[in-house]
Amino acid sequence: MSADTKQNTITIDGQEIPFLAGQTIMDAALAAGVYIPHLCHRQGLTPHGSCKLCVVDIASKSVTACTMPAMAGQQISNNTPALNEARKTITQMLFIEGNHICPSCEKCGDCTLQAMAYHLGMLDGHFPQFFQRREVDASHPTVMLDRDRCILCELCVRASREVDGKNVFDIAGRGTNAHLIVNSTSGKLVDSDLETSDMAAHICPVGAILIKKSGYKVPIGQRTFDLHKVSEIGLEKTILTKVRQPDE
Amino acid sequence: MSMSSAVSNFSNMTDLLRSVITRIYAESPYLLHVLYALQRKFLHISDEAVREVAAHLDLPTSQVDAVVEFYAFFHKIPRGRYDILFSNCTSCGYMAGGVDLMAMFGRRLGIAVGKTRGDGLVSMDQTSCIGMCDHGAALLVNGMPITSLDGPMIDSIAALVEAATPLEDWPAEWFYVEGNIRVSGLLLKDDLSEGISLRAMLALGAVGSLSEIIQSGLRGRGGAGFSTGMKWQLCRDAQGAAHYVVCNADEGEPGTFKDRVLLHSYADSLFEGMTVCAFAIGAKQGYLYLRAEYRYLLSHLQSVLTRRRELGLLGVGILGQPGFSFDIDIVVGAGAYICGEESALIESLEGKRGIPRVRPPFPVTHGYLGQPTVVNNVETFIAAAHIVLRGSAWFRAVGTGKSVGSKILSISGDCAAPGIYEYPFGVTIRQVLDDCGAKDVLAVQIGGPSGTLINRAEFDRRLDFDDLSTGGSLMIFNQARDLLAVIVNFAHFFAHESCGFCTPCRVGTTLLKNGLDKIAGGHGTQYDLDEMQRIAALVKYRSHCGLGQTAANPILDGLQRFPQAFEQRLVHSDEPHFDLDAALEEARQVSHRDDTAAHIK
Ligand SMILES: Cc1cc2nc3c(=O)[nH]c(=O)nc-3n(C[C@H](O)[C@H](O)[C@H](O)COP(=O)(O)O)c2cc1C
Ligand code: SF4
Ligand code: SF4
Ligand code: SF4
Ligand code: FES
Known about the structure:
The complex is a heterodimer.
Chain A: E1 8-12, E2 15-19, H1 25-31, E3 55-58, E4 61-64, E5 75-77, H2 81-97, H3 112-119, E6 136-137, E7 143-146, H4 155-163, E8 169-172, E9 179-182, E10 209-211, H5 224-227, H6 230-235
Parallel strand pairs in A: 1-5
Antiparallel strand pairs in A: 1-2, 3-4, 3-5, 6-7, 7-10, 8-9
Chain B: H1 3-8, H2 10-27, H3 31-42, H4 47-57, H5 61-70, E1 82-87, H6 101-109, E2 115-116, E3 122-127, E4 139-141, E5 144-146, H7 151-162, E6 181-183, H8 196-216, H9 228-237, E7 244-249, H10 258-265, H11 267-281, E8 285-290, H12 298-310, E9 327-332, H13 342-349, E10 373-377, H14 378-390, H15 392-396, E11 399-400, E12 403-404, E13 406-413, E14 419-424, H16 429-435, E15 441-446, E16 452-455, E17 473-478, H17 483-497, H18 503-520, H19 526-542, H20 546-551, H21 553-561, H22 563-567, H23 580-583, H24 585-591
Parallel strand pairs in B: 1-3, 6-14, 7-8, 7-10, 8-9, 13-17
Antiparallel strand pairs in B: 1-4, 2-3, 4-5, 11-12, 13-14, 15-16, 15-17
Helix pairs in contact in B: 2-3, 2-4, 4-5, 6-7, 8-9, 8-11, 8-14, 11-14, 17-18, 18-19, 19-21
Bound molecules: flavin mononucleotide, iron/sulfur cluster (3 copies) and FE2/S2 (inorganic) cluster.
């Protein structure tokens, strides 16, 4: 971050918020405790701007909060019925594009996509399901990859490169054929250099990358989003380090 | 190739791959070019080839894999020795003449769309507009265009393929692409003779040349209309280890083919313009990003570059100026409309998938390799070359208001004389339609599918940046056309070309395509129409780049101006309609049944 600490302000839903040079609208909002819904963003990783959950309006122009630099005087609409409706539709798009069957998913209750759906009052997928065929990769001894639930947020891609100092994941294909690939000669996780302790193995907001043999350790009812709102978790300061599981 | 032969030839194959990769990479160090060479030689890019390329170019395997899967002209499954791609554009597509030429070709050779024939001789698929719209139905055979197709020609082509006749022995006139210049204005009167603008530029100096461009009021001809002078100034002022000039010759907007003609007949003017830009911004290296569909122009363009080097107009010490060195490389794409978007184009130049970058920062400060870069359209550079030679006043004398100079149009569809027309900005649609001999016009698509669809009542509107802005495409549809079919075609185009980066466009363009298919198939209700409207608005306002932001235009314009085209296909019920019979299709396929009892009607 720039050494320039001269404070300026932006306004989000009428609330004046300070920002530092170099901050995005999302950075400034989170620092001030203002929640802007987000899925592909994690503080400390390079902003991506792909999920579009964080769209806000500046003078009826749509702007992506996680990538847009904060600039003095911006008048920003965030928590409005129209924007939350747009975000709900985008969340529904993510649901019907992949294959999400929450009750049978290990991530249920810990899943940010699911929590987002609740947050936005989403009751169904609304659109016809795409029923895409997506590959599961169970080759790795400790990490499972189920592409059915991948929302292409590239958090794992960035965490691997920027935190783990590796390059385990990438996205291939285009349009609705876009899919997560693994950087190894066989394309399988087992032949990659992914380790359980990597940030990339833990950052997935949905149930696409899972740590094996840990699925139901925390019972349903006591999981992250059973106890907290997505808006609370989204405001938490995330610490980007490799995590070592207690059972490793 | 069978498994056993692949295994037994393993070491030979590896050696062969390595030799091809090494040779091509030494000639032309671009990932896209290496992959193209492998695709041509082996008809696909195998997993082993991906690994070898990654090793030789010192790239992650996943990056090479991702690139192979991104571009439409690279394949992981072998194509035929004759790879036939029919354009699916409304003007140069396989349905342009009213008959399905692709189906006809498929029947002749016993081959399905998207497939390679069992004997490996031939493969057939459709592809987005190949820019031959002034010539009717067109195809690419191993990358070479054949235009003006009709039934008898399809028969001849099928026979030549079946006999495995080498392309060199096919009738040469088939591969000749006429320019069809119908009206010439400021820029089309002549190709600038070599060096003439460069001498004017040297006389003016870098600052003087730049100020001529600024004073001319020239705005980008690729569609967005940003001030060219301001772009060059911003780039010149930006700090960087190097500055770059990039010419956008991706011309992927369906119905646009003026850059094809400019590249073919005005290449010297283009390279003069790029060199003027280099001088003004302080660049030593330039790139021409050429769409893969125009690869047939590559050798011509390269010969022009070679000649210019010999004449001292490119290279070290241009025109004897010790301080001025500049050269141009041509990089050929591989089938992706999104690579016309300037930041996706830069990603592609860098050997990556064509994913539009987050902006800001813009290419003028952070472009190719993160350095200050000017990206301009072919026509913009040509205009710049003329301005430096003839002065800004000469340019300003033509046009209207804030739209100065001329616009080169690609006119196609239902008219007597499709082709290239150059007009002063401000010309009315009516005048254009009269000049090209369009009769009984129902609608005109201005600026391609991403532009504006207008109806008869709007023919007095003008072509300029303030009214109807266009990158150059003008597609005409007469009363006999099924306009909904046209809009369906455009929806398929956008769903196919969406890069997949952002949710609204990735999922939304497919939802729009499916919704329109349902309505066109006679299964839609008013509810579906309302849904389309809602999704279209979301895709338009919430997408990441210009592709998504314009992808819903044909639907929104269509609903506004031609509602009857949609409404007459609706099932009249307010409930969402569900096609029970279609829903059983998968079950029928699984159970291999197609008898009457397996259908519900
Ligand atoms: C999806 C998409 C496709 C584009 N395709 C082209 C193209 O083929 N040629 C072009 O010059 N500009 C294209 N553009 C516009 C470029 O992003 C850019 O504005 C242009 O190259 C700038 O040059 P100009 O100022 O000379 O017009 C496209 C934009 C989008 C969003
Ligand atoms: S990943 Fe989340 S949204 Fe998807 S099935 Fe699992 S819990 Fe549900
Ligand atoms: S696997 Fe998870 S983290 Fe990685 S892109 Fe998919 S959803 Fe995002
Ligand atoms: S709008 Fe479409 S083409 Fe543009 S970034 Fe998003 S998905 Fe890609
Ligand atoms: S959080 Fe900003 S686009 Fe995903």
